[in-house]
UniProtKB/TrEMBL annotation:
It is found in: Cell membrane. This is Multidrug-efflux transporter. One of its GO terms (molecular function) is antiporter activity. The chain crosses the membrane at residues 35-52, 64-86, 106-124, 136-153, 173-194, 215-244, 264-284, 296-318, 338-358, 370-392, 398-418. GO terms for biological process: monoatomic ion transport. It is a multi-pass membrane protein. Keywords: Antiport, Cell membrane, Ion transport, Membrane, Transmembrane, Transmembrane helix, Transport. Pfam families: MatE. GO terms for cellular component: plasma membrane.
């Protein structure tokens, strides 16, 4: 599924690069903005996994169905609301992003189409979470594959005029995203109906919503807060790059291309993140703190070592990869510079991603929130603005700031792992009070549970 997500972004950027550097720069800006618009949906999706999986695990099917209906309501309402608000304040938003005049018309068109897409995108995000909560992971995999195939066909067809289709240029790229997400959403809705999850009892009355919503928010808000600050930080970073004194459009396009190449390295890093969460969570649940620490250190070492080796192997291919994604030489040079700094940061980036998963498994997400937010807002952005606008006055200052922030972030996470009592956030301590047997101390958790807080609904 992560590979399909990667292919969607990679093809978008490649096709945009074949059209024009301004299109590639616009794709980078608006794609990052889209993640910001989706923060509420992703937070609700995380909360729904906990609520729905625990309800099914406890045999409370009616409550599970009502939570499914509740997240569908939320997806439609917030997706539509952000679309309307975004349309009303479109030009103010583009002004905040410091979009250069050269790419303003293209960026505005992409924003129009992507805002129109939000209701369907919100539904896709929450329905994927509904299926994951029931371990029906094949459905999200299939819907992501459908999105990838439709996106590739329409990108090549309507963006470049392949397959005998009309060439709409950048407009074809924008509508390719709309078509792919809509197709995936329609598939998910059909699968909800097919699995008997879309019926009258799925949609709860308002009286139940008032009781069920607080638990969903309790789980979703911390995650949403971290994602909000993270994606907002990236938007500010793009705004800093867009307003650079020199070569800003090439820098935006090169940064967009470089990020797509870099994301290939993040696929296994995300796997280490999820593995750490599962293994450390299981060890702490069984009361084995020393084992949890050993697993954390070993997994972090393996992740950093293996991904550093992959980065070293990728180094000789930086130039051809950049030229492949960015045909214009000036943009390719920016992509190469971006990749050089970010390949240097791979050990630190992978370490912080793996340690973030470990803290999630322990329930210590407050540490991840504090460190990630500090690294972005107190280190990366001030240094990027200072170096990019006053010292070097080009994008290289932004790239160096990203490297420095990753070193800070991974060092802080490692300090927490070794020196702080992050174990206390697990259920182990609370469950062990006053119990006489191992069964009492370590009761089996509800299937798929993500939190120790039980809903009172």
């Amino acid at each position: 599924m992560m590979f399909f997500h990667f292919s969607i972004g990679f093809i978008d950027v490649w096709v945009a690069g074949q059209i024009d550097r301004s299109v590639q720069a616009a794709v980078g800006l608006i794609s990052q903005s889209l993640f910001f618009f989706l923060v509420i949906g992703m937070a609700v999706a995380n909360g729904s996994v906990a609520a729905i999986s625990q309800s099914f695990g406890a045999g409370l099917r009616r409550r599970a169905f009502r939570y499914i209906g509740l997240v569908l309501y939320i997806g439609l309402i917030f997706g539509s609301a952000i679309w309307v608000v975004g349309r009303l304040f479109k030009w103010q938003f583009l002004g905040i992003l410091q979009v250069p005049d050269e790419i303003l018309p293209v960026t505005g068109y992409f924003l129009d189409v992507f805002l129109m897409l939000l209701p369907a995108y919100y539904l896709m995000v929450v329905t994927n979470a509904v299926f994951r909560a029931q371990k029906l992971v094949v459905v999200p995999l299939a819907s992501t594959a459908i999105a990838a195939v439709v996106n590739a066909f329409t990108d090549f067809g309507f963006g470049l005029g392949w397959f005998g289709l009309p060439n709409f240029g950048y407009k074809g790229v924008a509508w390719a995203t709309f078509a792919s997400v809509t197709a995936a959403t329609l598939f998910n809705v059909y699968m909800l109906y097919h699995h008997g999850l879309l019926k009258a009892e799925t949609f709860p009355p308002l009286r139940w919503v008032r009781k069920g919503l607080p638990y969903l928010l309790k789980v979703a808000l911390p995650t949403g807060g971290m994602q909000l600050l993270w994606h907002l930080g990236y938007m500010v970073l793009f705004a800093i790059t867009a307003s650079l004194p020199n070569d800003n459009v090439n820098a935006l396009a090169g940064m967009t291309a470089g990020m797509r190449v870099e994301s290939l390295l993040f696929l296994p890093a995300f796997a280490f993140n999820m593995t750490g969460s599962i293994l450390v969570g299981n060890s702490l649940g069984a009361g084995r703190k020393d084992e949890a620490l050993r697993i954390a250190l070993r997994l972090t070492g393996i992740a950093c070592g293996s991904m550093t080796l992959v980065a070293v192997c990728m180094y000789p291919f930086i130039d051809p990869l950049a030229a492949f994604l960015a045909p214009e030489p000036a943009v390719a040079r920016q992509a190469v510079n971006y990749l050089l700094y970010n390949i240097l940061s791979i050990p630190f980036t992978v370490a912080s991603m793996t340690l973030g998963g470990i803290m999630t498994g322990a329930g210590a997400t407050i540490y991840t929130f504090a460190v990630y937010s500090s690294a972005t807002w107190l280190v990366r952005l001030p240094i990027a603005y200072t170096l990019g606008h006053f010292v070097w006055k080009d994008a290289e200052g932004v790239y160096l700031a990203m490297l420095i922030s990753q070193i800070f972030q991974s060092s802080a996470m490692m300090y927490i792992l070794l020196k702080r009592d992050w174990y206390r956030f697990s259920m182990m301590k609370r469950n062990n009070k006053g119990c006489r047997t191992e069964e009492e101390c370590c009761p089996p958790p509800l299937e798929g549970a993500k939190t120790n807080v039980r809903p009172a609904v």
